[in-house]
Design goal:
26 strands; Rossmann fold; 36 helices; seven-stranded mixed sheet; alpha/beta; seven-stranded parallel sheet; single chain
């Protein structure tokens, strides 16, 4: 029976093991017959390193055979199997399973490739679990009813599926890692290993640090160890006390029939004095703050590989960590042992964007968002020696598309538009050539994929275009370049060969299936990084730390979901299905608890970092790991106060919410100059009245958001403006009745032509396009019907069109409160100016609105004219009172402003001979079927005298007050109406300005 030995983690496990192993042992050639097996390659490597250090002092010449479990299985498989097969990648092992599906399901795989691909991956995981537990698959007579039909069918024929799959896999020359392990166990059970050549090479076996064995691993060790009298099972325990053994160690001892037959290694072998580690906990709300603080703990380059380690619970922390390491003042030699997901690399996001562009095509046209995601990708800058090219060239393409508002685009239209374009030093020929090359490499090549080799060629073309074809032949120095080098290595050795060699069966050879395979590879492959594993700062994943000891240990992201890691969900491996398949249901918490305890106790100095994000719209909710809570509780039970530091972000918060953005004298002078030189419209004043902060960002800082893609809120309004302008233009200056000029066919014809000119079919999806067109046409026809009915009822006797899109202005001398006079030009563009003969002649200023809910508030306007007096202060309160009188939407202000301009220009439109008339302003809202026209004034005839008096003599004083408020108030005041902020493009800027310094 093997000897069982316990070594505490805080004695420096591997060095202590070396001391014990070498005690009384002669390191001559007989040592070669001693085999030592570790759970992972890194612990085996470190053991060998310590053995060399110790053996070097003793002038040793030979060393034992040292394996990881993986290399041991590989070695035994090759030595024992007559015709050994390589394991191949997961996707290569998946292809035979997809070939077997039609035989089991009687279903054409190519027709449902994506669905079968998904379930194929899930069933591979089922087979691996069964093989790990050495269970022969059996059919499920009654599979769970909540599974899709395909999964139910496969479970009902699971045994046949498994046997036929393994037969085809073997025929193709592949084998799965778990099946390989199973084959080794089966072979060892059949032979007498001691009588073989392989057995003659072994006299003594050490199994070091194994815990939580699966059934097939247990069988392997039992059948292997029974052949040798000298065998040792060495376990790492978190603490020295043998009475408190972790359950995973107890269970492993029981597997080998050694419930109490173990001993703790005597202290004379310990590599260092056993001490309780010093532990400090850090809490932060931001990953970058966490990393910065962690790197502050590293003050010099580690001289030994077991000096400092950074352990990452979440591999996505790696790239931000590398970036911060490169900025560190002291030169650091770094070894990164973990693999990084391929899909986190910039080039990978470009390749997935290329795939998405093909998938998002609609009727042969590219989705604008997908197209822009490719041409705006920063990796494209690698193609040009001049880094400004992308900004100078691709930006105009984006502006062109956004201005058009297309949701889909034609490559030919882009090439035609920019075939006559030149920018700066770039000639028309250069730009035309480059745009065609970009389209060819990233779009057109991918349209005509007919075989796997086409994928390989297209990838090579992209690498060539980006000047990356020979990148790996050059020496790299920066972290970023080394990372890119390793990424390209994976592309060239794992991804490209998959498509350029004859791996794929014929049924996969269509574009969609091939893109699915490429996308899977780009999402699942992992990139090895860099460094010498026995030098410098060690950056490790959790599983790489097994059996290792470090002087200073820095653990990042000790958060729930990262430590312990959340299990990937497989709907075919629920606890219910596992019990039916006789797969054990493990308590993973026990295993991770063991890993955490041994890791913390193996170091002298431990720094634990976690993120705490409770509720956030911009960040994922984060909470500390259960092991952080348990550690704090244990320390408190021992009467110790956990040492915890809160990492604070470096910013100051205002003690109260600010009212506005301060106006400097320079800003006031700039405003004065602008008002004196430029014409100002009602939009200028409306923005100021609604929100001073928005006015500041828009007119002072001159910031604007890019045009949104596709349909824009203002598009319906622009279309309706254009339609009525085209329809009524022939009648400008003339008298007419709608009853006389109405022709529905002509209206529909004009509508169709204009709708096509607006290119709405490129701005909508087909259903939205149909609905929008139908509703807009119905709205226009309803408005004409409204006017015709008024005419039939003799409420309207005639129309005279005075102006369409009429530009009116007036110059006014504004007296400022400091005594100066400012000459301002107020202007506006009027959609419709109409003279309408009704009971009383009316002069109407009409503005088209596509939103049927926008309405003036006549009651408020009447009160404003009759009762309101201007404030004597220029502060927030006075501004709010003005806003209150004009209504939240400021619809009253727009019509007030237009009335003021019309009164100043009325001699152009109203003959002096006309003495009985009404001037009014309102909105035309065709989509409001009930009341398409809505007016600012709803008064009796005698009340209009007060309106005329107001606009002739008093309205100017109100505009004068606003100008003075602009120039002499202390701040650009934030709005008090939160509804104004909902869709404001400046909201993020505003929040920072409002709450932070």
């Amino acid at each position: 029976m093997p000897q069982a030995i316990l070594i505490p983690a805080n004695s420096h496990f591997l060095k202590t093991l070396v001391n014990f192993f070498l005690d009384g042992r002669s390191l001559d050639e007989s040592i070669l017959k001693t085999w030592i097996v570790f759970p992972n390659k890194r612990s085996a490597l470190f053991f060998k390193h310590y053995l060399k250090e110790k053996g070097g002092k003793n002038k040793a010449g030979f060393f034992p055979r040292i394996f990881s479990l993986e290399t041991l299985v590989d070695y035994l498989y090759v030595m024992l199997e007559d015709h050994p097969c390589p394991t191949g990648t997961k996707i290569l092992r998946l292809l035979p399973l997809l070939e077997v599906f039609p035989q089991v399901l009687s279903e054409n795989v190519s027709e449902n490739f994506e669905k079968n691909f998904f379930w194929g991956i899930k069933f591979l995981e089922v087979f691996e679990e069964l093989e790990k537990e050495d269970i022969e698959p059996q059919n499920l007579v009654y599979p769970p009813e909540n599974l899709p039909p395909i999964a139910q069918d496969l479970f009902e024929k699971l045994k046949k599926l498994y046997l036929e799959y393994n037969a085809l896999l073997s025929q193709k020359g592949w084998v799965s890692p778990t099946f390989r392990l199973k084959r080794v166990v089966e072979t060892l059970e059949k032979i007498d290993l001691k009588k073989t050549f392989l057995g003659s090479m072994i006299e003594e076996v050490w199994l070091v640090g194994f815990a939580g064995l699966r059934k097939i691993e247990e069988k392997l060790f039992k059948v292997f160890l029974k052949n040798f009298e000298k065998a040792f099972l060495v376990f790492e325990v978190p603490k020295e006390d043998p009475t408190v053994l972790p359950n995973v160690v107890k269970n492993t001892l029981q597997l080998f029939g050694m419930n109490q037959d173990y001993r703790v290694l005597p202290k004379k072998y310990y590599a260092k004095e056993v001490k309780t580690p010093s532990i400090k906990i850090y809490r932060s709300t931001d990953l970058h703050l966490e990393i910065t603080k962690a790197l502050d703990l590293i003050r010099e380059n580690p001289q030994r590989p077991d000096e400092i380690a950074i352990v990452l619970s979440d591999p996505n922390t790696l790239i931000p960590l590398i970036y911060k390491l490169e900025q560190k003042d002291i030169p650091l030699e770094v070894n990164i042992s973990l693999f990084y997901p391929l899909d986190s690399f910039p080039l990978n996001s470009l390749l997935t964007a290329v795939i998405k562009a093909q998938r998002d095509k609609i009727q042969g046209l590219y989705s604008t968002q997908s197209y822009l995601k490719v041409i705006k990708h920063p990796m494209l800058n690698r193609a040009f020696s001049d880094n400004t090219f992308g900004e100078e060239f691709f930006k105009p393409i984006e502006d062109f598309i956004r201005n058009k508002g297309y949701v889909t685009i034609d490559l030919g239209e882009i090439e035609k538009e920019f075939g006559v374009y030149h920018q700066g030093k770039y000639t028309q020929d250069i730009i035309g050539k480059i745009i065609k090359e970009v389209h060819q490499v990233f779009f057109k090549n991918w349209e005509t994929i007919r075989s796997p080799k086409d994928i390989g060629k297209n990838l090579e073309k992209i690498l060539e275009f980006l000047n990356l074809k020979d990148f790996n032949l050059k020496s790299q120095s920066s972290f970023q370049d080394i990372v890119l080098h390793n990424y390209l290595e994976v592309i060239e050795t794992e991804v490209l060969p998959f498509f350029t060699k004859d791996y794929l069966p014929p049924f996969i050879n269509n574009k969609e299936n091939l893109l699915t395979l490429l996308e899977y590879l780009l999402k699942t492959q992992k990139v090895p990084l860099f460094g010498d594993p026995l030098r410098g700062l060690q950056i490790l994943g959790l599983m790489e730390t097994r059996l290792l000891s470090f002087k200073k240990l820095i653990l990042l992201d000790i958060n729930e979901g990262s430590f312990p890691p959340s299990q990937k969900f497989n709907p075919l491996l629920t606890d219910e299905i596992k019990s039916w398949l006789k797969i054990p249901i493990f308590n993973h918490n026990e295993l991770w608890s063991y890993y955490f305890d041994r890791l913390v106790n193996s170091a002298e100095e431990v720094h634990l970092f976690y993120l705490l994000v409770e509720k956030s719209t911009t960040q994922e909710v984060k909470e500390p790991s259960r092991f952080i809570h348990r550690l704090k509780w244990e320390l408190e039970q021992q009467g110790k106060e956990p040492e915890e530091e809160l990492i604070q972000p470096n910013f100051c918060v205002f003690s109260k919410r600010e009212e506005g953005i301060p106006k400097t004298e320079k800003i006031k002078e700039s405003l004065f100059n602008h008002l004196s030189r430029e014409r100002v419209s009602r939009y200028y004043f409306e923005t100021y009245l609604k929100c001073g902060a928005k006015f500041f960002f828009k007119y002072i800082m001159k910031l604007r958001e890019p045009e949104r893609l596709g349909f824009k809120v203002e598009d319906p309004g622009k279309f309706i403006h254009s339609f009525f302008e085209e329809f009524f233009r022939p009648y400008e200056g003339k008298r007419f009745l709608i009853l006389e000029i109405y022709d529905e066919n002509r209206i529909k014809n004009k509508f169709d032509i204009l709708w096509k000119n607006f290119e709405f079919e490129k701005k909508f999806d087909p259903l939205s396009h149909y609905l929008s067109k139908t509703i807009t046409l119905a709205s226009i026809l309803k408005y004409f019907e409204f006017l015709r009915k008024k005419e039939e009822e003799k409420k309207i006797k005639a129309h005279k069109l005075l102006g369409l899109e009429k530009d009116l202005e007036t110059k006014e001398d504004i007296v400022l409160c400091d005594g100066r006079t400012l000459n301002i030009t107020f202007y506006g563009i009027f959609d419709f100016l109409i003279e309408r003969e009704e009971e009383v002649r009316k002069y109407l200023i009409m503005d088209f609105k596509s939103n049927p809910s926008i309405s003036p508030q006549p009651k408020k306007m009447k009160e404003f004219i009759n009762k309101y007096s201007l404030p004597d202060k220029y502060d927030l309160e006075s501004l709010c009172s003005i806003l209150e009188n004009f209504g939240d939407s400021l619809a009253n202000f727009q019509l007030f402003f237009y009335c003021y301009l019309f009164y100043k220009n009325k001699q152009k439109f109203i003959s002096s001979k006309v003495d009985n008339y009404i001037i009014n302003a309102g909105f035309i809202r065709p989509s409001n079927f009930k009341e398409p026209e809505d007016f600012l004034f709803n008064l009796k005839k005698k009340e209009y005298a007060a309106v005329n008096q107001f606009f002739e003599k008093e309205a100017k004083s109100f505009l004068e007050w606003i100008v003075n408020h602009m120039l002499f108030s202390e701040k650009f005041y934030f709005t008090e109406k939160e509804d104004f902020c909902k869709y404001c493009e400046y909201l993020p800027l505003c929040k920072n300005y409002r709450y932070l310094i």
